[in-house]
Each structure stands twice: as structure tokens, then as C-alpha cells.
């Protein structure tokens, strides 16, 4: 395992550096001048230039980047250009809402993805197989925001079973909290679950063609044991890696879903910060989201290596 980690850590470190560069440059490439935002539309050119010098924006970009990384590394995430509040405070106030949504959506994605994938893997023909293929294809083709609107129309407007907008923390009131959380979580999870299901189904079909499965059949091993100990066990690695990748998709999709369901999480904060050109907040949110996605993917690779000795040996 140590050899595997030694081989993978440099690439993860490189990804984190690239992420920091992108997060730093992205607001600046979007146009506009942070000094102008701070100074206001009525400020003179001299006032804007003075603010630029005060904020260090007149220095070379590499110098600005090094200073920004140093501040972030020490926990100083900067100050909002619009509200003049610490960025850490703004993110901390919204982080709980997004974590509730992301964790619930991830749990639903894993349960539904594995369930559908295994069911499709053991159902190889007939009408049930065609029905499963059709359902998975529809879920794959439907983006989260469309799924969210459909859920609102059915369960929020037609049947009035769930609240449409707003939120209540599950830690304050678990029952009401989940009633506000379940529709946006399903909207985020369904397309990602369909992707995992498709990968697990395809991998199970591939494993069935392996020689060790033919050998088990020739030795008279019971079909249930072949399915569980040979086919399914050797198919789960695909689901582990896919889950790590899909969590990044869930974080990205949360931006739109939070807007649709009026949840006051990091997604809504990102939307309002982009529209108001609050660069300090935007770059920290981008950095936070991508770093989480990279670390989760790395954790999934470690889990896969722990499950499959061949991965550890190959590094």
C-alpha cells in the first residue's frame, strides 16, 4: 500500500496545485476589475488605481498568487468585496446546507446505483431486462435540473406531498429537514446512480466471461456463490472509482439544484457572488469544491487498492 501511495501522491499534489492556479485565475479571466467593484461605479480613475495598489493588484500575477496561497494555507480566506465580511464566515454559514444535500445525494446514489446495477447484471433477458435498460437510459439522459422540475411538478404541486422551496436543517428538525431535503437530493442522485448502474452492469457482464468464472462453473460451484464471490466481488471496483468521480458531479450539480429549490447553500452563494463579481468568494468556492472532488477521488482509489491486491502491486 505504501508503494501505491508513493506512486499516486505526486499526481494528487500536482492536481491540487493546478486547482489552486485555476481558482486564482478564473475570476480574473472572467473580466472586470476587483478594485472597481470595491470603489463603486462613481469612483474616479485615481481612486480605482489607489485601491488597486492597496489590494496588491498592481503586482505581477505570480506574486499575487504566492501571497494568496500563503494566506489560504494559514486559514485567511480573504474578505468579501461586497459585504466586507470574512469569506470563511460566509462559507461557514452556507456549508452545512450543501453538506446535508451532498451527503444525502451521495448515499442515495450509491444505494440506487448499486441496486440497479446488480439487478440489471443478474437480469440478462426478457421484458424485465428491457424495462431496466429503458429506466437506466432515461435517468442517464435526464439532467438534474430537469429531474428536479419533474419532482416539483409531481410531488410538490400535483400531489403536494413535499415542500417545494426552502430548507430546515436536519439537525434542528429531522422530519421536516428530510422533507425539504429529499427532492433536491433525489434530483442530484438519480442521473449519477444511473451511470454507476450502467458501469456495474457492464462490468458484471465482462467478469462473467473471465476464465476463473468458467472454472468455478466447471467445478460445480453453486450459481449464488459464483455471483457473490466471483462476479459481484470483482465488479465492485468499477463502482468504487465511479462513486469518487460522481461525487464531483454532485458538487457541481448542487449549484443549479440549490437555485431551483431555493436552498441557501454554497451553490446559491456561488451564483450570487458571480453575479455581483465578488471575486474573493468565487475563487475560494471553486478551490473548495475541486479540492474536495480530488480528495474524494483519491480516497476511492485507496479503497479500491485495499480491495484489490492487483492495484497495489501495479501501483
TrEMBL record:
<dbReference type="Pfam" id="PF00528">
    <property type="entry name" value="BPD_transp_1"/>
</dbReference>
<dbReference type="InterPro" id="IPR035906">
    <property type="entry name" value="MetI-like_sf"/>
</dbReference>
<feature type="transmembrane region" description="Helical">
    <location>
        <begin position="177"/>
        <end position="200"/>
    </location>
</feature>
<feature type="transmembrane region" description="Helical">
    <location>
        <begin position="12"/>
        <end position="30"/>
    </location>
</feature>
<feature type="transmembrane region" description="Helical">
    <location>
        <begin position="235"/>
        <end position="261"/>
    </location>
</feature>
<feature type="domain" description="ABC transmembrane type-1">
    <location>
        <begin position="95"/>
        <end position="300"/>
    </location>
</feature>
<keyword id="KW-1133">Transmembrane helix</keyword>
<keyword id="KW-1003">Cell membrane</keyword>
<dbReference type="InterPro" id="IPR000515">
    <property type="entry name" value="MetI-like"/>
</dbReference>
<feature type="transmembrane region" description="Helical">
    <location>
        <begin position="281"/>
        <end position="307"/>
    </location>
</feature>
<feature type="transmembrane region" description="Helical">
    <location>
        <begin position="134"/>
        <end position="157"/>
    </location>
</feature>
<keyword id="KW-0813">Transport</keyword>
<dbReference type="GO" id="GO:0005886">
    <property type="term" value="C:plasma membrane"/>
</dbReference>
<comment type="similarity">
    <text>Belongs to the binding-protein-dependent transport system permease family.</text>
</comment>
<keyword id="KW-0472">Membrane</keyword>
<protein>
    <submittedName>
        <fullName>ABC-type dipeptide/oligopeptide/nickel transport system, permease component</fullName>
    </submittedName>
</protein>
<dbReference type="Pfam" id="PF19300">
    <property type="entry name" value="BPD_transp_1_N"/>
</dbReference>
<feature type="transmembrane region" description="Helical">
    <location>
        <begin position="101"/>
        <end position="122"/>
    </location>
</feature>
<dbReference type="InterPro" id="IPR045621">
    <property type="entry name" value="BPD_transp_1_N"/>
</dbReference>
<keyword id="KW-0812">Transmembrane</keyword>
<dbReference type="GO" id="GO:0055085">
    <property type="term" value="P:transmembrane transport"/>
</dbReference>
Amino acid at each position: 500500500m505504501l508503494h501505491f501511495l508513493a506512486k499516486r501522491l505526486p499526481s494528487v499534489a500536482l492536481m491540487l496545485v493546478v486547482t489552486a492556479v485555476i481558482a486564482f485565475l478564473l475570476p480574473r479571466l472572467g473580466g472586470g476589475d476587483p478594485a472597481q467593484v470595491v470603489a463603486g461605479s462613481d469612483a474616479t480613475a485615481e481612486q480605482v488605481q489607489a485601491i488597486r495598489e492597496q489590494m496588491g493588484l498592481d503586482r505581477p500575477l505570480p506574486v499575487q498568487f504566492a501571497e494568496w496561497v500563503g494566506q489560504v494555507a494559514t486559514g485567511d480566506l480573504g474578505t468579501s468585496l461586497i459585504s466586507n465580511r470574512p469569506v470563511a464566515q460566509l462559507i461557514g454559514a452556507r456549508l452545512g446546507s450543501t453538506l446535508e444535500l451532498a451527503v444525502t445525494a451521495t448515499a442515495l446514489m450509491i444505494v440506487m446505483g448499486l441496486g440497479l446495477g446488480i439487478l440489471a447484471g443478474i437480469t440478462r433477458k426478457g421484458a424485465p431486462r428491457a424495462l431496466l435498460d429503458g429506466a437506466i437510459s432515461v435517468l442517464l439522459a435526464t439532467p438534474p435540473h430537469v429531474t428536479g422540475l419533474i419532482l416539483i411538478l409531481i410531488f410538490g404541486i400535483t400531489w403536494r406531498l413535499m415542500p417545494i422551496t426552502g430548507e430546515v436543517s436536519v439537525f434542528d428538525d429531522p422530519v421536516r429537514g428530510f422533507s425539504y431535503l429529499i427532492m433536491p437530493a433525489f434530483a442530484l442522485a438519480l442521473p449519477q446512480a444511473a451511470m454507476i448502474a450502467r458501469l456495474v452492469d457492464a462490468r458484471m457482464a465482462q467478469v462473467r466471461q473471465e476464465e476463473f468464472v468458467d472454472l468455478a462453473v466447471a467445478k460445480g460451484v453453486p450459481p449464488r456463490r459464483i455471483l457473490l464471490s466471483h462476479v459481484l466481488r470483482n465488479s465492485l471496483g468499477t463502482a468504487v472509482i465511479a462513486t469518487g468521480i460522481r461525487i464531483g458531479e454532485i458538487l457541481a450539480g448542487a449549484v443549479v439544484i440549490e437555485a431551483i429549490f431555493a436552498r441557501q447553500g454554497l451553490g446559491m452563494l456561488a451564483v450570487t457572488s458571480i453575479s455581483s463579481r465578488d471575486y474573493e468568494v468565487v475563487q475560494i468556492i471553486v478551490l473548495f469544491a475541486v479540492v474536495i472532488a480530488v480528495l474524494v477521488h483519491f480516497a476511492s482509489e485507496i479503497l479500491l487498492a485495499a480491495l484489490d491486491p492487483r492495484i497495489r502491486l501495479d501501483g
